[in-house]
Amino acid sequence: MSKVRVHISTSIDGYVAGPNQSDENPLGEGGEELHDWLVQLKSWREHAGMEGGEVNVSSAVFDEEIANVGAEIMGRGKFGPAARGPWGDDPWRGWWAEDPPFHKPVFVLTHHEREPLTLSDTTFTFVTDGIQSALARARGAAGDKDVFIGGGANVINQYLAAGLVDELELHVVPILLRGGERLFAGVGPDLKLEEIRVVEAPGVAHLKYRVVK
Amino acid sequence: MSKVRVHISTSIDGYVAGPNQSDENPLGEGGEELHDWLVQLKSWREHAGMEGGEVNVSSAVFDEEIANVGAEIMGRGKFGPAARGPWGDDPWRGWWAEDPPFHKPVFVLTHHEREPLTLSDTTFTFVTDGIQSALARARGAAGDKDVFIGGGANVINQYLAAGLVDELELHVVPILLRGGERLFAGVGPDLKLEEIRVVEAPGVAHLKYRVVK
């Protein structure tokens, strides 16, 4: 059965991006450190077309995270820099140059219409009619595979609040960001979670939950 | 070497007490659920003078938590209800009736002077000259045992911000409190944490960190 899944790195004080996000600091001040555990993994580096890296307990967690994903949904803030408004004549083509690491259909939530953009084997489709519509289209594209809600926090919180997420994994990193984007802002009290598993790994704790429907 | 330790249950959205704390709801709305994993443990119940309970993975975590503790520091809000001001002629004697479950010296941070109170084998000493003084007195009472910072969030955050804590354990419970007392409020950026261990247990994840000095 196809699932809607969230997997996201969070600081120990509950932020998934640091304060003062900008073009230079897309994840906010200190936010890059949220992914230190990830970018050193051999399997992540292979997935992103990079060499080297190590294998540790987190490798299996990451492999599980990316397995069986048929489509991703992201906010405009994950696709591009903080500037908003119409896309313009020479629109932003994503952070990832000509070979994005998705290799699957990506649906970008935005208030401004835009034609789809294909880069290598990833097609970005821009959805202007809300999270339900984006999910329906992502499900259609994913077939019997899962849909990954890629962030940022605002998009994840909207899907959590609407009761549309099936599984939620937090990668808890022992840093304090002290501000920025908070996971769970505006979510609840209807969201009921059940612990699936907890994994100790170097520099990170992986906490996975099922949403009880 | 004697350590200063914090062990506290937190909701998945980062609150250690729920909103609207009151005499009826000392832990705020929904806050009691933070301790569901704990109060069902045989070892906790024995410690509190109660019968029954179960043994599971959390039992060893709790046994480790209470082992080798020589003194506890708590805020007035953990000792008594939200009412503040002078203690009065017939002062509050704690939530725990005549046999408190501490069995060791307890130092209560308050702005109002009061004579020590002894109930069974627990003596509560009221400290009005701040967290450093309370810690010095607790260390003196604990000898070569550890000092436990018992909460609430405000007291823990003060000790974390002052760099006085050696170990911090979070018992992460998959509930959303959506408001209340936030751990880490006002703490950082100097606090550096290093993961010691992560334990999966029924309905809770135990995440333990060392403070890097």
Give the topology, please:
The structure is a homodimer of 213-residue chains.
Chain A: E1 4-11, E2 15-17, H1 36-39, H2 42-47, H3 57-66, E3 69-75, H4 76-79, E4 106-109, E5 117-119, E6 122-127, H5 131-142, E7 146-151, H6 153-161, E8 167-173, E9 181-182, E10 193-201, E11 204-211
Parallel strand pairs in A: 1-7, 1-8, 3-4, 3-7, 4-6
Antiparallel strand pairs in A: 2-9, 5-6, 8-11, 10-11
Task: Provide an overview of this structure.
The structure is a homodimer of 213-residue chains. The first copy, chain A, is 21% helix and 30% strand. Chain A has six helices and eleven strands. Chain A has helices at residues 36-39, 42-47, 57-66, 76-79, 131-142, 153-161, and strands spanning 4-11, 15-17, 69-75, 106-109, 117-119, 122-127, 146-151, 167-173, 181-182, 193-201, 204-211. Chain A has a nine-stranded mixed β-sheet, sandwiched between helices. A two-stranded antiparallel ribbon of chain A has the order 2-9. In chain A, strand 5 (117-119) and strand 6 form a beta hairpin. The relative contact order of chain A is 0.25. At the A-B interface, strand 10 and strand 11 of A face strand 10 and strand 11 of B.
